[in-house]
Amino acid sequence: xxxxxxxxxxxxxxxxxCTAQSKYPNHPLPSNPDTLRILAIGNSFSDDAxxxxxxxxxxxxxxxxxxGRLYIGGCTLERHCKEYETNGHEYVYLKSVNNKWKTIxxxxxxxxxxxxxxxxxxxxxxxxxxxxxxxxxxxxxWLGKLIEIVRKECSNPDAxxxxxxxxxxxxxxxxxxxxxxxxxxQYMFDSIQLxxxxxxxxxxxxxxxxxxxxxxxLRKTWLNTDKDLTRDGFHMSxxxxxxxxxxxxxxxxxxxxxxxxxxxxxxxxAGTENEVxxxxxxxxQKIAVKAAGxxxxx
Length: 298
Fold this sequence. Notes:
Rossmann fold, globular, 10 helices, seven-stranded mixed sheet, 7 strands, alpha/beta
């Protein structure tokens, strides 16, 4: 029955994709900018996925990338819009200028504009809260409203809006938020994919950071863990999960803008409890290249 529902939903979405035209014009990724500025608007999943990105940049000898991550744990598209509208101060805002994260605003101190207004961002990423990531009714109209806010407030009118496709929960996860997907990892993954495909078309989003697909690929390899590369059933593991998703971000955003691939990157988190081996790193980098290429092939 679940498979029938996904297939039927896919058919309806496909019909919509054939007729829909985006009302939200977007811009391409920049090409070899003097300084590349990337802001992630999200939640704990964007926090996980970007934690090791500065390490990968440093190992690649790249020092002209400014990163920002603006998030509230569990934040949905709807809540981002409402935080902006009500002038809420619930965000954490971190920034990396010299390939090292620094906290600018701590928990329950940051406002939406503390992040968005801080730099003329070239790339701004968005994502849905994980429990609702495979439910289209949670995207519309909030994704459109968030895009409108970004276009209004970002000082760079040519910023590219990019979607971060998050991962399905571990098959071991028992939280009630997984009930939206009948506690079925593949069903959740398929539901997220359908929503991402529709969001790309309806909201003019050309580039997707395929963290979810990469994680799903890695779950079918020897690298998988008993919690499916998570530390608690839904957040990425500090070791493999965070490393793998950072590789996906690098390959999706850094390779096309600065011409440097994550393949062969020497960052290993050396000297920490989360250090990865050369064999593990090579596999995760290989999967990142494959996932990014597949997600954004024309």
